[in-house]
Design a protein that fits this description.
Order of helices and strands: HEEEEEHEHEHHHEEHEH
Radius of gyration: 21 Å
Strand content: 15-25%
Strand order of the largest sheet: 3-4-1-2-6-5-7-8-9-10
Helix content: 25-40%
Number of strands: 10
Oligomer: single chain
Largest sheet: 10 strands, mixed
Distance between the termini: 57 Å
């Protein structure tokens, strides 16, 4: 029986070490951040969840696990501050609200309310909408619905300054944000582009047998409605830049910060977007980075193949510290800063 006790003791010690390591690597912020999950519905009536981060005076604890991300936050804690700027985050294809949790926490720590919707039908748990005729426009509508919810129905909406709204989008989320800014993509270009160019978006559309690969069917659901409430935006490795054509970005008039990975294996060069935005874009090319380098640094539990694999000696954690600071400075300049009082 002694060996049983020894085995049990060993398992308990091992479990304690694992838990200790997991807790020690939880995402933390410089100043207290609150977090909660809320829900709204898209234009088609489909409900979807929204992760919300915000400044709080409550004590943060490493007890909030969402997916495989552990955060040290004040779960459902009180909101600190008034007239807070809002930033909405649109995740990439097959992603989720937690894909940019470190940026969300950095923004909330600085005095922003951050809302990241779980795009229905295009997320880590459900890809049933991917490639449908309304795939792209539905995402843009969901971003509008997120802003609507945060400014009018979220319990803390009275604390938000509706005149200071920004957006961040990664990959397909970058395309979503661009269309919310007024971009007018030509979806007819998808068919021709995908017949001659190897690109991740084309592989995804082929996998789902999308009618969007047929130029004659690409007009269905192609009405993108801009959201004038968004005053500034950050785009990281935006997808489908080739659909913007010659004049697709002519109606984008707000300041944009554009990030591109030097060794991006998923999207083609950001050149068309960068050149079209010209003087309005604050461009950053990240040396040695691959596409997924823009996702939250991987923790103890979050280590899926590919998403957590960086090239060479690229240091994702160090990169995110610098990028998050640049994003904060950009929104601080164009949304007139945050209003969190000094402690």
């Amino acid at each position: 029986m002694k060996w049983i006790r020894r085995v049990l003791l060993g398992l308990l010690v091992l479990a304690g070490v694992v838990v200790g390591v997991f807790v020690s690597t939880a995402l933390r912020s410089e100043r207290p951040v609150g977090f909660q999950l809320t829900q709204t519905t898209g234009p088609d009536g489909t409900p979807f969840a929204i992760g919300v981060w915000y400044p709080s005076d409550a004590r943060p604890l490493p007890t909030t696990l969402v997916g495989a991300i552990l955060m040290s936050v004040a779960r459902d804690g009180p909101i600190a501050g008034n007239k807070l700027p809002l930033v909405v985050i649109s995740h990439g294809n097959g992603g989720g609200p937690m894909g940019h949790a470190d940026l969300a926490m950095a923004l909330a720590s600085a005095g922003y309310v951050v809302a990241a919707p779980m795009h229905p039908g295009d997320n880590v748990d459900d890809q049933s909408a991917v490639g449908t005729p309304s795939f792209f426009t539905a995402r843009t509508g969901q971003l509008h619905a997120t802003v609507d919810h945060m400014l009018a129905r979220w319990p803390g909406h009275a604390r938000i300054d509706a005149e200071r709204v920004g957006a961040y989008g990664f990959s397909m989320g970058g395309f979503t944000v661009l269309t919310a800014l007024g971009a007018r993509p030509d979806l007819h270009l998808i068919a021709s582009h995908c017949t001659k160019t190897a690109e991740f978006a084309c592989d995804v559309l082929r996998h789902f047998k999308s009618p969007l690969l047929n130029a004659n069917a690409a007009t269905a659901g192609a009405a993108f409605v801009p959201d004038p409430r968004i005053k500034a935006a950050v785009l990281a490795a935006p997808g489908l830049g080739f659909t913007m054509g010659t004049h697709g970005l002519d109606q984008v008039h707000v300041p944009v910060q554009l990030w591109a990975a030097e060794k991006d294996e998923n999207v083609t060069s950001p050149g068309p977007v960068r050149e079209a935005l010209d003087a309005k874009v604050d461009f950053h090319l990240v040396p040695g980075a691959s596409h997924y380098a823009f996702l939250v640094p991987c923790g103890v539990l979050l280590r899926p193949a590919g998403i957590c694999t960086d090239l060479g000696d690229f240091d994702r954690k160090a990169f995110h510290q610098g990028m998050n600071a640049s994003v904060l400075a950009f929104f601080g300049k164009h949304l007139k800063g945050a209003t969190r009082p000094s402690s």
